[in-house]
């Protein structure tokens, strides 16, 4: 429920910031590409959607100048996707909106309880003490 609420609140924040076309799936793609450039096939697998659906989404994000395509050095047929400066800017804006939502949560829970919640969730998501959170995928 909290995950859904965060998504709904984030969507409202993006609408309020003049970006009503941003959907949760855009955020997932930005998060995937934040770690490193990759292929549409890998994005498709991580999102759990068809290559056709991924291709359509990527075309839209390239058109919006959030992503850039380039040929792979080993195989020109393979296209590598990476974030553009505009994509990085949007990712930072989404993170800023998320921080604003967390501040509202802190007003309800208090800073200490929110930090405890964050620590507990990290322990559940990274039980072996991993430094990075595992990749997230949409709940369709």
Q: Can you characterise this structure?
A:
Strand 2 (67-71) and strand 3 (79-83) form a beta hairpin. The chain is mainly α. Helix content is 63%, strand content 9%. The model has no long low-confidence stretch (mean pLDDT 88). Strands 1-3-2 form a three-stranded antiparallel β-sheet. It has helices at 2-16, 24-35, 40-47, 51-63, 85-109, 111-125; strands at 38-39, 67-71, 79-83. The longest helix is centred in the last third of the chain and has 25 residues, at 85-109. It has one domain (25-125): Winged helix-like DNA-binding domain superfamily/Winged helix DNA-binding domain (Arc Repressor Mutant, subunit A). The protein has six helices and three strands, in the order ααβααββαα. Helix 2 (24-35) crosses helix 5 (85-109) and helix 3 (40-47) packs across helix 4 (51-63).
